[in-house]
Amino acid sequence: MTWKIVADSSCELRHLEGLGPDLSFDTVPLKIRVGEREFVDNAALDTAVMMSAMGNYNGPATTACPSPEEWAEKYLQADQVIALTITSGLSGTYNSALVAKEMVLESHPEKKIYVLDTLSTGGQMVLDIWKARELIEAGLPFEQVCAELEIYNQQRGLLFALANFDNLVKNGRMSRLVGFMAGAMNMRAVGRASDAGKIELLHKTRGETRMLAYILESIDRSGYDGSGPVVISHCFNETAAHLLANGIHNKWPGARVEILPTGGLTSFYAERQGLIVGY
Ligand code: X90
């Protein structure tokens, strides 16, 4: 029996190293449209080029979720599939992944397909992907992998700190008023993925040092004890990502912290300097 883990491109990862012959990993890209140009969020995307195209363009820029056909193509490549999507609270990606499941099961009723709405994105999806891999490699049956993954996802959290909310507001993912107040000069707004998978602003800080301190406090308050991995993704802000990683190591020595650049979709919305933290 072959397995596949497939996630949409908001998960930042594009490859998993060292998989055995019966397990594969793939992503399904969201698309970013800047005027007439379309950027496909796959391993070939140069996010720096996309960001500068965005910066040089004053018209509307939008994103689009993967089609059911794109998901279905991946589902057909294994007997047992675990699909993970960005929150259904902000994107049609989950719905598209479910439509694809119905399509594929109609012609291939023997397949097993599970679609998890992570109610999150970025680093939290990375954690879920790693967990799914661990459960599959431990030899657990399909139903148990799904059940344990769902519980694991519920116990994780996602925080973000952004300097700019323009694309979230323009694309209707956040209220204009809240986005305007949060995005004032030099301010960093820290928020989290709410239990319903929406953007919940927690706090505004002035400057990066206070922002990092607030993120550390929030992780601490949530009950994190250092035993689980943390994934920090950053949009052209490696310095802040490393400072945060150091802060985490000081507070929880031995915690595994991974730093990744944001992919196309998360770069588009987090914008320059943005940080996203899954834990
Ligand atoms: O379907 C589409 O076109 C994609 C829409 C995605 C909209 C939001 C993406 C946000 C990415 C920003 C900070 C994290 C917020 C997470 C809250 C659940 C990154």
Strand order of the largest sheet: 10-9-8-13-11-12
End-to-end Cα distance: 31 Å
Number of domains: 2
Q: SSE order in H/E notation? A: EEEEHEHEHEHHEHHEEHEHEHE
How are the secondary structure elements laid out?
Blueprint: E1 3-8, E2 23-28, E3 31-34, E4 37-40, H1 47-55, E5 61-64, H2 68-75, E6 80-85, H3 93-107, E7 112-117, H4 122-137, H5 142-154, E8 158-162, H6 166-170, H7 176-182, E9 187-193, E10 199-206, H8 208-221, E11 230-234, H9 238-251, E12 257-261, H10 264-270, E13 275-278
Parallel strand pairs: 1-2, 1-6, 6-7, 11-12
Antiparallel strand pairs: 3-4, 3-5, 8-9, 8-13, 9-10, 11-13
Which descriptors apply to this entry?
6-stranded mixed sheet; Hypothetical Protein Tm841, Chain: A,domain 3; 2 domains; binds heptadecanoic acid; 39% helix; 10 helices; 279 residues; alpha/beta; Rossmann fold; 4-stranded parallel sheet
